[in-house]
Each structure stands twice: as C-alpha cells, then as structure tokens.
Amino acid sequence: MEVPGGLAAGRPGGGGPRLGSPAMERTDPDTTGDELTLLSQFLDYHRATLVQKASGLDREQLGTRLGPSTLTLAGLVKHMALVEDGWFGRVLLGREYSEPWDSVDWDADPDWEFRTAVDDEPEDLLRLYADACERSRAATTEIGDLDRVAARPSRRGEPFSLRWIMLHMIEETARHNGHADLIRENIDGAIGE
C-alpha cells in the first residue's frame, strides 16, 4: 500500500488556514506568489473544504452512505488523515507510521480507515485530520524545497519530489471533496463550495 504523510502551523509565506483546530477557515489562495506558497495555499484550501463538508454532522450522519457505495464522509476524513501522514511523514520524511495507523494489519484489512471511521466521534475524526494536516505543514516547512527528493521512492523505485507530493495531494484532496460534496448533499441538502 503506497500512501503519504505531515506539516507545521500556518502556511509558508503568510497567513491562511490553520488546521490545529477541527474547524478551519477556508481562504482563497493568493493570486500571486512563489510556487511553494501557492501550492501550500491551494492544498490548505482543499483541506478546509473537506472539513467544511464534514462539519456540523453527528456520527450517524457522517456514516451515511450514498446508494450502493460504502463510502462515507467519516471514511473520507479518516482516509485523508492517513494520506496526509503517509505522503508527508512516511514518504517525504521517511518516518514510520504512528497510531492509529501503526498497529493496523493493512494486509488483513486494507480499507481499515474507511471501515472503522463510522465508529469514531465527529470531533475525534476532525481532530485526527487537523493534526495530520499540521504535521504535513511542518514537514513541508522542514523540507522547504520543492525539488527535494523524498526519503522513500515509489514501488517502482522512482523518486518523488516535494513538488510531486504537493501536486498529488491537491489532486487527491480535491477529488475526494467531489465525493464529499455528493454525500453531504444527500445527507442534508447542503451544497456549494
């Protein structure tokens, strides 16, 4: 299973959403700036969008499925916490997983985060994600160079740069936000960005 990992408070080069709190403010990215700042701001924008889609719901609502799919908002939030820790902590920095990921038997239960998320309290899920995003920001700040090669290569042995990881995380978070948007509209009719 090839997934990512974590960062520090605030975005490089200025203000913007802090994910130290489960309720994050969604702020439009600047229209100009250096590449690392803009990539960080776009990723924070999409992180905050996911939190917005999952906020204000109880555990039952977060566990709601749409049609035959087993996907839930709870599962998306927990999955994205895993993805943040995987790409930034494990792949970029070369660290091992910490809990709750470290003790999971991923071979026996490859969808553990999706399956178990429906049993988690909303505030715990949002905190797990916020903390993972903070670690991801810290990792990005620590590395600070988009051309820097990650500690762990791909399964094919190819290197990942911080730039690639940032772009991938924007893509993955935005894609899952589309799923979250449909699920949230099904739950209570809430639509929009």
Number of beta strands: 0
Largest sheet: none
Rounded average pLDDT? 89
* Uncertain residue segments: 1-22
CATH topology: Four Helix Bundle (Hemerythrin (Met), subunit A)
Structural class: mainly alpha
CATH architecture: Up-down Bundle
Shape: globular
Summarize the helix and strand pattern as letters.
Answer: HHHHHH
Helix content bin:
40-55%
Strand content: under 5%
CATH homolog superfamily: dinb family like domain
Rounded to the nearest angstrom, the radius of gyration is 16 Å
Task: Give structural notes.
This protein has one domain: Four Helix Bundle (Hemerythrin (Met), subunit A), CATH 1.20.120.450. The chain contains six helices and no strands. The chain has helices at 35-54, 59-62, 73-92, 112-116, 122-143, 162-188. α1 (35-54) runs parallel beside α6, α3 runs parallel beside α5 and α3 (73-92) packs antiparallel against α6. It is globular, with a radius of gyration of 16 Å. Residues 1-22 have low confidence and may be disordered.
Feature tags:
193 residues, mainly alpha, Four Helix Bundle (Hemerythrin (Met), subunit A), 0% strand
Write the layout of secondary structure elements.
Blueprint: H1 35-54, H2 59-62, H3 73-92, H4 112-116, H5 122-143, H6 162-188
